Amino acid sequence: MASGLKNNQAIWCEVGQNLQDHLLALGNLYRARQTVPPSKLQHSESLMYLHSDDLTRRTGSPDIVLGCVVAPSLSEQFIAPAYGSAYTILAGVTHSSSRGEIRPTGPGRKNPPIIDPHNLETECDRFTFRQAIRTARAVDEHAALGAWRDVELLPGPECQSDTEIDAFVARAASTHHHPVGTCRMGRDEAAVLDETLAVRGSEHLFVVDASMRPSIPSGPVNAAIVAVAETWSSLFQGVR
Asked: What is the rounded average pLDDT for all residues in the chain?
């Protein structure tokens, strides 16, 4: 969306643009050999952030995430088996190259916005998701899970080619509820916010939430946004 006001008022070229989120595949589902006990950690027992090209690398920003979930966690495209009979290894991409947008549908507050995440539009994202799915499979095939793993239910042993995995991800994909970026800060004129998080061209108007980030962090955004808010508050608490 490109909108603007003249007479030295703000020209907000990228308001609603640059939408980014963490996307997960729900998920690599496995029937269990024994009853899976209830979770004590909101179903997700662990997360791991990895480099898909070298799982041993410890430097740089990881591009995939895996999560061990004791519940049979699936998108609405699939029917979940009974709780305790299966478990899921989630697979996701940490830094999507696709960029979504939010657009208004009318002038009133009751007019619902159009939110288009543009998920999986780039070959880079599709490739990285394939890597994440295959890495999740490799984790589940490890001997350490032999006492728990019975058979892969999803994507299923027959799902092996790039085309088949892409089709599965399109059905299994789900937001991780970490949207950022639609009022990004920056030094260029197209940025909505300046380095103080002030809306360009306005007076006494600031945006201090997840939308200010130019890019998304690898993991959940909560701590990063709290850090930004606390820092801004300490530096600019006198600004009105």
From this structure: 90
